[in-house]
Amino acid sequence: MSDIEKNAKADAKAAKARAKALRPWYRKKRVILPAVIVVIIIVAAAAGGKKNTPSAAGGQTTTTSAAAGGQTTTTTVAAGGGSSLPKFGTLVKDGDFSFRPSQLVCNIMSVGSSSNFNLTTPTGQFCRITINIYNHSTTTQMVDVTSQYAVDSKGRQYPGDSTADSSGNPNLNSVLGLDTMSLNPGLSVSGYLYFDMPKGDTPHYFIFHDSSFSGGVKEQA
Length: 221
Fold this sequence. Notes:
Layout: H1 3-21, H2 29-48, E1 50-54, E2 61-67, E3 70-76, E4 92-94, E5 97-108, E6 125-135, E7 141-142, E8 149-151, E9 157-159, H3 162-167, E10 182-183, E11 188-197, E12 205-208, E13 217-220
């Protein structure tokens, strides 16, 4: 090989070495490969460190986040019902009325009596509560039994039964029971509310309304 060829090869090799040395740091293999591995680790950690688990029926979402000292769990209960509602027996307000329930009883298979020609039987079973209703407004307001609801654990709503109301409120001086009773300002009335529910079912919470157009207020059963 001639000296000219040797010199040409040496120049080409030197030029290649110079180009490699002058290559930007972020394009060098020893930097690119570790950087790619770091990015993969970060993405995998972000994807696996947090998970949301929705519950089956209660509308609950539990969020679990990985942390250096352990795990942090946050539970949010939806507005449909649950432990965030006022406890049974609490005085609650909706519109012009205040409501205080008590004495929940289920598995009632009839109210009234055949001798009084007002015997009423449920399709399933009656669940009954004692309810005190107070008119805290400045005007007369009418009670609407069918605007009161028992809600079971599946979210099914059962309105107050007006027929059972008229048959099963013998202590009220009203043929219709609580239903359509006019309550003057500052006065209250106590009576029974009946809900026709499937056998074996029970109320999970109640919704009380001062009228069919009000927003309603919820309370645990």
